[in-house]
Amino acid sequence: MTPDISFHRGKPTPDAVFTILIPSWNNLPYLRTCVESIRKNSSRTHQIIVHINEGADGSLEWVKQQGLDYSYSATNAGVCYGFNAPGVMATTPYIVLSDDDFYFAPGWDTALLEEIEKAPADSWC
Questions:
Q1: What is the value of pTM for the model shown?
Q2: Which CATH number does 5-119 carry?
């Protein structure tokens, strides 16, 4: 059965390099740390899209307050939908998959983009 998922745009990110997809299931403290690490430790602008499963812990309200793009399911749609559903909102050539308990280290995006640019074009899907 396909879950009922809604899609919502936040603040525009016209110069975004990566789209970062983050599924979250009632894990607000970790989600907050993850998003804050992206904002703090990125050298470029990125589109962050969160998929909120249930959001009974206040994560839905927090994502709205942050102006993030997000998709939402009232029940837990699972991790596969959690990555795939928000992917339709991606606006960049590169997509990064992240769990909500990841921490992005300083310079993560510069290092990743440098490696992508060194590789042949057909090395990436």
A1: 0.94
A2: 3.90.550.10
